[in-house]
Write a structure and sequence with these properties.
heterodimer; A: mainly beta; 7-stranded mixed sheet; 4-stranded antiparallel sheet; 55% strand; globular; B: mainly beta; 6-stranded mixed sheet; 12 strands; 0% helix
Chain lengths: 116, 114
């Protein structure tokens, strides 16, 4: 596997379910990100991890719980979601999260989440 | 606060023609980076091109070039010789030098017509 991978690619869940999204990067990067992309809205940054520590949390509801066990893996644990949480969830990684303007983010293919 | 504006929700271009996708930004920072990403229907965001605010020349990458006008705070993407595979959403994004993470614009959907 190369680049950034995400599983599952599609997920349908009820509001009472608990599920997890997984992201893995094979690029040797130190920073990983979760984004939410809803229809007709700009991409929203949710969480940033640098060297397995959370460095940014953009007022995300507690029903979304991130976990970064190591610099290559990032999870997003979901519980008691709402229908408005249905969106494409994108994971990205970069060499680090600071240090200059050129720090390209590499994105995974996303998980299309539908909450019923 | 930083903000990215993309005023064209949708654009059409004939195959083999050139197209310009608009991007304007608002920032008070003296140093920043500007990015363009392509998102095909598969969902993955694909990096296309980067322009640093202090770069003297406009960035170019193959068929992509960035028309950077710093005084006007615009960073338009020019795609030359459009191909059918260029049909996708295109996002302009900005990053501050202190590591502030990306701010994305709302995107422009480009459709290339045969």
């Amino acid at each position: 596997e190369t680049g950034v991978t995400q599983t599952p690619r599609h997920l349908v869940m009820g509001m009472t379910n608990k599920k997890s999204l997984k992201c893995e990067q094979h690029l040797g990067h130190n920073a990983m990100y979760w984004y939410k992309q809803s229809a007709k809205k700009p991409l929203e940054l949710m969480f940033v991890y640098s060297l397995e520590e959370r460095v940014e949390n953009n007022s995300v509801p507690s029903r979304f719980s991130p976990e970064c066990p190591n610099s290559s893996h990032l999870f997003l644990h979901l519980h008691t979601l709402q229908p408005e949480d249905s969106a494409l969830y994108l994971c990205a990684s970069s060499q680090d999260h600071t240090g200059g303007t050129y720090n390209e983010q590499f994105f995974g293919p996303g998980t299309r989440l539908t909450v019923l | 606060a930083q903000k990215i504006t993309q005023t064209q929700p949708g654009m059409f271009v004939q195959e083999k023609e050139a197209v310009t996708l608009d991007c304007t930004y608002d920032t008070s920072d003296p140093s920043y980076g500007l990015f363009w990403y392509k998102q095909p229907s598969s969902g993955e965001m694909i990096f296309l091109i980067y322009q640093g605010s202090y770069d003297q020349q406009n960035a170019t990458e193959g068929r992509y070039s960035l028309n950077f006008q710093k005084a006007r705070k615009s960073a338009n993407l020019v795609i030359s010789a459009s191909q059918l595979g260029d049909s996708a959403m295109y996002f302009c994004a900005m990053r501050r030098v202190d590591g502030q993470n990306f701010v994305f614009g709302p995107g422009t959907r480009l459709s290339v017509l045969p």
